[in-house]
Amino acid sequence: xxxxxxxxxxxxxxxxxxxxxxxxxxxxxxxxxxxxxxxxxxxxxxxxxxxxxxxxxxxxxxxxxxxxxxxxxxxxxxxxxxxxxxxxxxxxxxxxxxxxxxxxxxxxxxxxxxxxxxxxxxxxxxxxxxxxxxxxxxxxxxxxxxxxxxxxxxxxxxxxxxxxxxxxxxxxxxxxxxxxxxxxxxxxxxxxxxxxxxxxxxxxxxxxxxxxxxxxxxxxxxxx
Length: 224
Ligand SMILES: [Zn+2]
Known about the structure:
By secondary structure, the chain is mostly helical. 56% of the residues lie in helices and 10% in strands. The protein is built from twelve helices and six strands. The strands form two sheets. The chain has a three-stranded antiparallel sheet with strand order 1-3-2. A three-stranded antiparallel sheet has the order 5-4-6. The chain is globular. It binds zinc ion. Zinc ion (ZN) binds next to loops.
């Protein structure tokens, strides 16, 4: 790869990374994952360019980190698997990663497990006291705090602060008509959360493994 090509890859990478970070600042986790993944094809070129221009031995793979950090929040195990596959196929690139990617992958998978676990323990008709949420032994407190904050933003949870103490409920509405978007064709769809977790092919374009959970505001902004 010539220097001019490396530079183009570097610039494309940076552009996608910037849009992913912007989505992160708006709590649009589906877009963070999608845009950070769009940077991945330029990772190798970016890495070569940075090593050459900045004389660095190790390079930060922020796009990979963004995916692994945000995918568990929207229970997107497929995004984690895609990074794992890419990592497996590109060992020669990842040897220059400043961070231990296998470790980040296993952490991300563990957070995904914790997210599923928290989602199922919150399935109780009387809600869960806010205090109790961060005391489940198998869910790290630091992660449950991120998770609950994220889920309030997406609309997966609702809060009842009447009576003594705050109680957290799974948003019942979301069990019936959930907001999802197809990563392949961009169509917004309603499906139950259980259906979402089963990751069906898109009924619109037939694309597989493309359904992502989105904030309810995305769909209302679309004018329904
Ligand atoms: Zn589709």
